[in-house]
Specification:
- By secondary structure, the chain is mainly beta.
- The protein has two domains: 8-302, Pectate Lyase C-like (3 Solenoid); 310-424, Immunoglobulin-like.
- An eleven-stranded parallel beta sheet has the order 1-2-5-8-11-14-17-20-23-28-32, covered by helices on one side. The protein has a nine-stranded parallel beta sheet with strand order 3-6-9-12-15-18-21-24-30, with no helix packed on it. It has a nine-stranded parallel beta sheet with strand order 4-7-10-13-16-19-22-27-31.
- β25 and β26 (265-268) form a beta hairpin.
- It is globular, with a radius of gyration of 23 Å.
- The chain starts with a helix and ends with a strand.
- Residues 1-8, 350-369 and 392-396 have low confidence and may be disordered.
Length: 426
């Protein structure tokens, strides 16, 4: 009796396969979600699947990679086609290796982790769709994801009627978002009549007591339209109304406004707009386009920072969409300044988790094989280092490698590199 009870309490793994291959439990995703219990895992094989809704339970939904598994909207439009709400206490739901088109809305205290996913708003007339909205005290954690706002679709209009706007990539309204190594791209607008004034979608909108943390992310507003006269370009990051934006001071976050055309001349729009009591800790960004600061801002940001050194780790792409460091691991550092001293640190990057602090701390690789390196950059301002890892941490799960470096200039200035995370299989 006890044996039967234990098995009844174990989470179930369901297989969804549109091609009805061996071991298939369901042909489409909504039916699997309806049958699954809190804590179950749903493996979604390559194919195209219908929109989904998750309410009142935590599920792990893992695709075969964003290039292979598409969860698609049935009808094009600006509103989100997929939704998650009322997550129970615990780690929340996990979406991994999926391309979700049609917009995902997290509302009603949802708690969701997004790993190596592509989220796309649909292209639509009058207003492109958003890719992700986090509202009503919901929480989202994203790593290695790409968010794309939908573009406006052109159609015949008389002068002076509704413009065709690009959709925002991500909107956080009274919610929280932590993102690492993600791309946010607003949708493009379309000019269909001389008197319309369309706008490109924002890369990220943070408003009304929202909280966002970014680490090594790239954000860009959508373009304002086509020559000879365009609408307004989208904003890279738009923060307003008692909201809080935290940027990792050791990463290279890139923020750019979209492009527009005025009287035949191209220009770049606002990269970052801060309005009405924005809480912003000191940080450094690469900002392309004109920053706009209005209202009260607590904290400072250095705009137009100098180019940072870059790190690269030789890797290959796995079927899941993750990247796996090649063996032996080769790290290339472009420090930009020839023949200057540098320092290189290798370890395991913290992973954002839905409960408490990061799931993985800053655990170093075996210092005997890697760890900390110092030396001089070569005549090209570069350094290359190869090693065979011997990890302190085990557990049989892939973990992202941290590679952080600094170059020391003769003027006394220190430039820190980006943090280049690549999955390393134990």
């Amino acid at each position: 009796m006890l044996h039967s009870l234990v098995f009844a309490l174990l989470p179930t793994t369901w297989i969804v396969d549109a091609a009805n291959g061996p071991g298939t439990n369901f042909l489409d995703l909504p039916a699997a979600i309806a049958a699954a219990s809190d804590g179950d895992t749903i493996l979604v094989r390559a194919g195209t699947y219908s929109p989904f809704t998750i309410t009142g339970k935590n599920l792990q939904i893992r695709g075969a990679g964003a290039a292979a598994t598409l969860v698609d909207a049935l009808v094009a439009g600006a509103g989100p086609a997929h939704a998650i709400s009322a997550s129970p206490d615990g780690i929340g739901s996990v979406l991994a290796g999926l391309r979700i088109r049609g917009g995902l809305q997290l509302h009603g205290q949802a708690n969701v982790t997004l790993l190596d996913c592509v989220l796309q708003g649909t292209d639509a007339v009058q207003q492109g769709g958003l890719a992700l909205s986090v509202i009503q005290s919901s929480v989202a954690w994203a790593q290695g994801c790409r968010f794309e706002g939908g573009s406006g679709l052109p159609f015949s209009l008389p002068p002076g009627v509704t413009p065709i706007n690009g959709g925002p990539a991500v909107v956080v309204y009274q919610g929280r978002l932590a993102a690492s190594d993600c791309d946010f791209v607003g949708g493009d607008s379309v000019v269909v009549a001389p008197l319309t004034a369309p706008a490109g979608g924002n890369g990220l909108t943070v408003t009304v007591s929202a909280q966002v943390r970014l680490d090594h992310c790239r954000l860009r507003g959508g373009d304002g339209g086509t020559p000879p006269m365009s609408g307004s370009p989208g904003i890279g990051i738009d923060v307003s109304n008692d909201s809080h934006l935290q940027l990792d001071a050791f990463s290279s976050d890139v923020v750019a406004g979209g492009f527009g055309v005025m009287l035949g001349f191209p220009y770049q729009g606002t990269a970052m707009r801060l309005v009405n009591q924005v809480w912003l800790p000191p940080a450094t960004l690469h900002v392309h386009g004109a920053p706009s600061v209005q209202g009260t801002v607590t904290g400072t940001v250095t705009f137009g920072a100098p180019d940072l050194p870059t790190l690269a780790v030789a890797a290959t792409t796995l079927p899941s969409g993750e990247t796996d460091a090649l063996q032996p691991v080769t790290v290339t550092f472009d420090g930009l300044v020839p023949l200057q001293p540098f320092a290189l640190l290798l370890g395991l990057q913290p992973v954002y988790g839905p409960v408490g602090p990061p799931l993985v701390g800053d655990l170093l690789l075996d210092l005997g094989s890697a760890g900390f390196q110092v030396g001089l950059l070569d005549a090209a301002g570069q350094f290359q280092f190869g090693f065979v890892p011997a990890l302190v941490f085990g557990g049989g799960v892939p973990l992202p490698v941290l590679a952080q470096a600094a170059v020391f200039e003769a003027s006394g200035q220190v430039r820190l590199s980006n943090r280049d995370a690549r999955y390393y299989s134990l």
